[in-house]
RNA sequence: GCGCCCGUAGCUCAGCUGGAUAGAGUACCGCCCUCCGAAGGCGGGGGUCACAGGUUCGACUCCUGUCGGGCGCGCCA
């Protein structure tokens, strides 16, 4: 509807430019919005006011010219000039009613568009290190990223969802060492567990699997291992040096193959856990991209080479540095350490180069807000090698703070005292978690009220929406019990009978859905959809309370049933895009 | 110290890329089931949009500064 009015205004604008009433170079982006106040009609445009300066005319005069030049349209029954120069449009009831057959015909595709057709978009999200289970912070990124991806999908983009697996690097070595030590303990060794190692229970689980399936194959005496270790922090030493020495010992004593076996056992165990967790969260990927593969295929080396050829790399203290400060970064960054190992940053540059080489027109990264300082250096690298940094959108997701019983749930990664995503799902359910996570703008800090998410009451916005859907289903069940019939074709013919205020409101809301979807997708703002669904459910509940649908008057009944069938479809579509179920009864 | 994000009703948050009288939910108060699910609906009170300037026909929205909260400033990932 909005698009139709924009087209009309565009045509009026062109004809005024041709007649010389407006300067030919005036090219404002035409804005049409829904009015908040019915006294202002159904839609309004501020076009005349935007043109006032360039045309050196009063807004109301321009509005008058536009109005005179406006092509006739069957859907528009009245146009008025109001206030400082708004042009208000009044649409015919038929224009609003047309959405009902459109919804019922398109079904679960209603609201979708083809504007992204032929364009490939990559969305990378979660990408948490496989050093432990996902926690509730990752959950928000998962819900947000998955929804953004699905929304773009609905806009016709070819969406490629990807999880970047950090299966290389020091953190993973620390995990491998942690697993090995727990394994040694299970094998009967007595040893002090390092300050800096992973202490979560899942490390025991991996170690147990390792011991169960391999016996004492990886066992070495602790005294032998400890012989080459410095003091740990608790003995006055450096915890970083200690854990690094321990990793070196593991590699030396186990040998490359066995070390890799222990390492991969931990990696695969945790990765399988993460995949399972996300699948239950209704989050799925086209591809799990291995960081290690970038080194193995030489992509990292090539990335460093490309940067060197661009002339933005120098050597200092035995390391290779990227002069990212040339591109707005705070300081220069190391690509290759003095020990010859490339950094995580080098891998990430290679990864982003790879993304662009794969031909994605747009690359979206969903990161935790704590990584925001990382954005400038990645864009700097893209710019240095001549790639377009604007092809990359980094969407930063703020943390969620959990509340239970009005109290903040304390979390700290250090002690392993964090709430996992799995625990959250078990406590509030996948639907509530998905919905609550995207209820807020991603850059907003979020208070996640566990009690509210769990509550089966009207306080809970998700139940409110799902209840509206279930209530429609319930009406159709009643229909059968009362031996009445529903004939959609008749209903669609009788939409003119829908003259009540509540029906008008509902028709208007249904018409908004495609616009909401487009805005939510293109701006990466799923919360718009969540809020819209709440409003649509409200319109339905209000209508439900005010009027009977299963009335004697067959034509009116068919019209009303067609309307609520459309409501049901749109709620189901919207919830589906949010990864939430639409139950037929609750 | 520097950089990024956020300050809107008691609380949790919207505010359609600068538009008309700033909106929901919740909490509080009062109503509505002989009726398709009351997990619902209707009505009421509640605001210096953190603060101070600036830009213009017009600012919650854009710019500058101040205050307050979060996060980040590794040859970790």
Give a description of the structure:
It is a single chain. Helix 14 links the parallel strand 11 and strand 12. The longest helix has 42 residues. The protein is an alpha/beta fold and 586 residues long. The protein is built from 22 helices and 15 strands. Among the domains are: 90 residues, Gyrase A, domain 2 (2-Layer Sandwich), CATH 3.30.1360.70; 117 residues, Isoleucyl-tRNA Synthetase, Domain 1. The two termini are 35 Å apart. The radius of gyration is 30 Å and the shape is globular. Strands 7-6-5-11-12 form a five-stranded parallel sheet. Strands 1-2-4-3 form a four-stranded antiparallel sheet. It binds one RNA strand of 77 nucleotides through helix 2, helix 7, strand 10, helix 13 and strand 15.
